[in-house]
Amino acid sequence: MSHTTHQKKKLIARVSRLKGQLEAVERALEIERPCGEILQLLASIRGALNGLTGEVLDDHLHEHVLHAADEKARAEAVEEISEVLRTYIR
Amino acid sequence: MSHTTHQKKKLIARVSRLKGQLEAVERALEIERPCGEILQLLASIRGALNGLTGEVLDDHLHEHVLHAADEKARAEAVEEISEVLRTYIR
Amino acid sequence: MSHTTHQKKKLIARVSRLKGQLEAVERALEIERPCGEILQLLASIRGALNGLTGEVLDDHLHEHVLHAADEKARAEAVEEISEVLRTYIR
Amino acid sequence: MSHTTHQKKKLIARVSRLKGQLEAVERALEIERPCGEILQLLASIRGALNGLTGEVLDDHLHEHVLHAADEKARAEAVEEISEVLRTYIR
């Protein structure tokens, strides 16, 4: 990933927030919070994870597909996208 | 979509099969088949719909992104992909 | 599915609408509409299909889980739900 | 969540593994690993998160729906499931 320093920091900050959200699930399990609450925490983690994934996919589409160094690199980046999408849309 | 005639026929055949699967759900509801059976029919329709969507996305990536007429067309095709993905990965 | 006649009609009407949406995709493919348009049609079909599935799951939870005839029937209905969910959340 | 100590430990162990997987993404972003690799790490986190969610849903269905203390508690547990499912199947 050859992102700008700014993008990189933004993505890493999102991963940190996700870790914080997982720690909240850990604590909720420890102190035996209601299932419904834990399911809602998990649903919001899923939303945050999908948001992060969308961001990385977008960066990938713009940097490695749209602004690819050459046709070979572009073809490889398209294959990578295609493979990843198959795991999301199945 | 500027697909080859072959690809076009293949995609239309998939849509026809999906319609057939929906008719099976219609009949199952009519004759009041068990819920579990209807839920399984719906799950397999979802799989078939996702398979079709993956196919169209792949065609799009190859024909309009990889083999775009020019940079402007490629940028537009990338935006279209990006928008669609946001509705799937959210 | 032992739904009321009203619920049954509502569900069948949703399936009919879905068939209509698939026919729109068929026509769009036939006359070679842009990929982006076809992908948007497919995304809205997915939304409608998920809405229908949510409806059937809800009916199932209320009629066969909550108001089960007996404990054995309830246990079976819970297993059915559990299996279906595994295909959606994986 | 009134899980047995065994179940609770198992779920917490899964959350710990997920945190470890997120730390791998953090490192991969730091040392600028290829996008495709990061997307694959994110896809496997999504799989693990969905696995954990499926586990919690299953526990919920069995403990709070199937073996509910009374009808009122069961009705509430069914509503919770119904709400959570709407965020997954939409």
From TrEMBL, chains A, B, C, D:
InterPro entries found in the cross-reference section: Metal_Tscrpt_repr (IPR003735), Metal_Tscrpt_repr_sf (IPR038390)
Signal peptide as annotated in the record: none
GO molecular function: DNA binding; metal ion binding
Top-level taxonomic group: Bacteria
Coiled-coil features, chain-numbered ranges: none
Single GO biological process annotation from the record: negative regulation of DNA-templated transcription
CDD domains: RcnR-FrmR-like_DUF156
Protein family (similarity comment): Belongs to the FrmR/RcnR family.
Annotated protein name in UniProt: Regulator protein that represses frmRAB operon
Species this protein is from: Rhizobium mesoamericanum STM3625
